[in-house]
């Protein structure tokens, strides 16, 4: 059912290589999302951490990496009690920059009756994080 997939598309006045770095490199993830325990590597687990406590906020495995074009994670957060969802990132060249698309699927199956509550929270969260990513990349380009 496609209605339960969180779908986001954002545009950046930056090359795909720049956007890719902010999706995969530990120090750059911390600038807009959450600090990571390491750079993301295909086939390896990752954890995104709370800035203050260092506690795991979300985690999973990097399922696929096609540098500068596609990244797929398994993904969970505490409310899912370890049940995994899937986040797919697609980067495409566009006029003068990059279009970044995100599909976050599997929340309904993982969350059961709490799916709508979690879907709305994730939808809002992705919006906030993409706003931070847009501001971070814009500041980098203007520097």
From TrEMBL:
InterPro entries linked: ASHA1/2-like_C, START-like_dom_sf
Positions of the Activator of Hsp90 ATPase homologue 1/2-like C-terminal domain: 13-137
Gene3D superfamilies in the record: 3.30.530.20
Signal sequence residues: none
Coiled-coil residue spans: none
Pfam families named among the record's database cross-references: AHSA1 (PF08327)
Protein family (similarity comment): Belongs to the AHA1 family.
Protein name, UniProt field: SRPBCC domain-containing protein
């Amino acid at each position: 059912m496609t209605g339960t997939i969180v779908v986001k598309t954002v545009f950046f006045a930056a090359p795909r290589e720049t956007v890719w770095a902010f999706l995969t490199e530990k120090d750059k993830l911390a600038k807009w999302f959450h600090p990571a325990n390491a750079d993301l590597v295909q086939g390896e687990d990752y954890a995104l951490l709370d800035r203050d406590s260092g506690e795991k906020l979300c985690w999973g495995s990097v399922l696929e990496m096609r540098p500068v074009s596609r990244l797929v994670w398994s993904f969970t957060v505490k409310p899912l009690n370890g049940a995994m969802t899937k986040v797919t990132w697609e980067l495409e060249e566009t006029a003068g920059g990059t279009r970044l698309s995100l599909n976050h699927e599997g929340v309904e199956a993982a969350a059961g009756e709490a799916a709508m509550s979690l879907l709305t929270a994730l939808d809002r969260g992705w919006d906030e994080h993409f706003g931070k990513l847009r501001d971070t990349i814009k500041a980098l380009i203007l520097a």
